[in-house]
């Protein structure tokens, strides 16, 4: 023995801490996303069913029907896809968002300490993130919709399911019917939704964090007198509000996207987004159109459960993200000492 400490490059604490610091955005996003996705998935499943059902039904009654027909696993059908893929997509999304903000900072663009510059930086970075990530996330979300609506799609084909097909079987069926392009069914709507939704989300989040005392350096300062909450609650409040409001704004687009994808997966004739939106608002009978307000209310059916899901998912996401980031920031730095 030469008296020097030998270390394993994988398990050495100093190397591991350096790894966490270098990949902070990815580590924070992954760890936070696993928990928040699992917590909010049952509400997401109910939301998809509410968007596609043709008869009015309350959330509690729908939940009871799902439990009665499919059991507790009905709420988690297709969970492993978003649990694995969405978590990695979020990690990539946060990385692109963070790197884009670094570019703005390095080139001294929109760097004033004002809510306008802070919000625009977050919005542009979010749009870049949402646009790039949509190319990877579209197939996974289509399969998720396919799994969530197994019984609805089967009923539209006149089939009674005894046991729904698994995720791999769903992927094979989509590929068998429409080839690789079938995995990108409804991609244009998915691209627009993700780009606009992510831009609004990060614009609102960064703007609210600025209002509630976060500085451009990222440090959380004291909260304003008009909202005297503990600084540890700021990420949950801002994440919840930005998630709910941005989702409410793009919710009609998400409903149209889900309906277009449902028809395609069920093998029904194609119906464009504008026609789908018009039929949702005014009804299928042009000679007996429904009142506009009633149609809008139908589009926003399920918004309440979506709002609850957003509060749960995004509030937990940012709370855990900040907690993990704080933990990584306070890890001991490498201390290389020469030994005789």
TrEMBL record:
Annotated compartments: Mitochondrion membrane
InterPro entries: MCP, MCP_dom_sf, MCP_transmembrane, Mitochondrial_Carrier
Domain of life: Eukaryota
Membrane-traversing stretches: none
Listed GO MF terms: transmembrane transporter activity
GO cellular component: mitochondrial membrane
PROSITE patterns per UniProt: SOLCAR
UniProt keyword list: Membrane, Mitochondrion, Repeat, Transmembrane, Transmembrane helix, Transport
Membrane topology recorded in Swiss-Prot or TrEMBL: Multi-pass membrane protein
Solcar repeat residue numbers: 20-103, 117-211, 230-327
Similarity field: Belongs to the mitochondrial carrier (TC 2.A.29) family.
Matching PANTHER family: CARRIER PROTEIN, PUTATIVE (AFU_ORTHOLOGUE AFUA_4G06390)-RELATED (PTHR45624:SF9), MITOCHONDRIAL BASIC AMINO ACIDS TRANSPORTER-RELATED (PTHR45624)
Name by which UniProt lists this protein: Mitochondrial carrier
Species whose genome carries this gene: Gymnopilus dilepis
């Amino acid at each position: 023995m030469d008296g020097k400490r030998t270390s394993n490059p994988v398990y050495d604490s100093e190397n591991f801490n350096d790894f966490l610091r270098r990949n902070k955005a990815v580590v924070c996003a992954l760890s936070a996303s696993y928990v928040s996705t699992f917590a909010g998935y049952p509400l997401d499943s109910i939301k998809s069913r509410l968007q596609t059902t043709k008869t009015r039904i309350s959330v509690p009654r729908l939940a009871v029907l799902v439990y009665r027909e499919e059991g507790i696993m009905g709420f988690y059908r297709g969970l492993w896809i978003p649990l694995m893929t969405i978590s990695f997509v979020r990690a990539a999304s946060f990385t692109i968002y963070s790197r884009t903000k670094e570019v703005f900072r390095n080139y001294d663009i929109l760097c004033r300490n004002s809510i306008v510059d802070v919000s625009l930086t977050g919005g542009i970075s979010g749009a870049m993130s949402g646009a790039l990530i949509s190319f990877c996330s579209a197939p996974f979300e289509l399969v998720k919709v396919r799994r969530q609506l197994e019984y609805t799609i089967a009923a539209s084909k006149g089939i009674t399911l005894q046991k729904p097909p698994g995720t791999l079987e769903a992927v094979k069926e989509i590929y068998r019917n429409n080839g690789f392009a079938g995995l990108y069914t409804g991609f244009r709507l998915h691209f627009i939704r993700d780009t606009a939704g992510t831009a609004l989300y990060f614009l609102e989040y960064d703007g609210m964090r600025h209002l509630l005392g976060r500085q451009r350096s990222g440090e959380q300062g004291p909260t304003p007198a008009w909202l005297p909450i503990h600084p540890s609650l700021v990420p949950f409040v801002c994440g919840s509000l930005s998630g709910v409001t941005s989702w409410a704004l793009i919710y009609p687009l998400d409903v149209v996207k889900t309906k277009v994808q449902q028809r395609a997966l069920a093998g029904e004739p194609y119906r464009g987004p504008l026609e789908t939106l018009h039929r949702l608002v005014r009804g299928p009978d042009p000679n007996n159109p429904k009142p506009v307000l009633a149609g809008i209310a139908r589009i926003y059916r399920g918004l309440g459960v979506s709002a609850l899901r957003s509060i749960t998912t995004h509030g937990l996401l940012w709370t855990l993200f900040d907690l993990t980031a704080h933990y990584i920031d306070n890890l001991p730095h490498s201390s290389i000492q020469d030994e005789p």
